[in-house]
Amino acid sequence: MGMMLTEGGHLSHGFYTPTRKVSATSLFWESKQYGCNKDTKLIDYEALMRDAQEFKPTLIVAGASAYPREIEYNRFREVCDKVGAYLLADICHVSGLVATGLQNRPFEYADVVMTTTHKSLQGPRASIIFSKKDKRDIPQKINDAVFPGL
After folding, report:
1. Tell me, what CATH number does 134's domain have?
2. DSSP secondary structure letters along the chain
């Protein structure tokens, strides 16, 4: 599950339209989008919980490219725990704000945190993947997927 592109999400988080699967993540995996409350314009965490309980995702992405509000990673964690999903925090567009403490830090809640180094961190074009080492052996799964996988 990923945030709907038209509500601030990112194209790579499973975006699709009623007539077309647009991103590779929606082409190769079944995806479902979550969105914002129509009145508050904030992520609708109650609808996210209902949809996740129905959809039973393996992974929920907390992150966006054009959502100008704090993301409540603790609320995403609650949803993921309820449905048995991994929580991936994509902080590519706000990592500079996270590093300075001006945005919520996802590390306590997310199983995996990913970011780029060239956007708000102002480094060379690259990326970083952080993960928790636990019984699910997430670091090894990521390593195997990155090389030789991709």
Report:
1. 3.40.640.10
2. -EE-GGGT--TTTT-B-SS-B-SHHHHHS---EE-B-TTT-SB-HHHHHHHHHHH--SEEEEE-SS--S---HHHHHHHHHHHT-EEEEE-TTTHHHHHTTSS---TTT-SEEEEESSSTT--SS-EEEEE--STT-HHHHHHHIIIII-
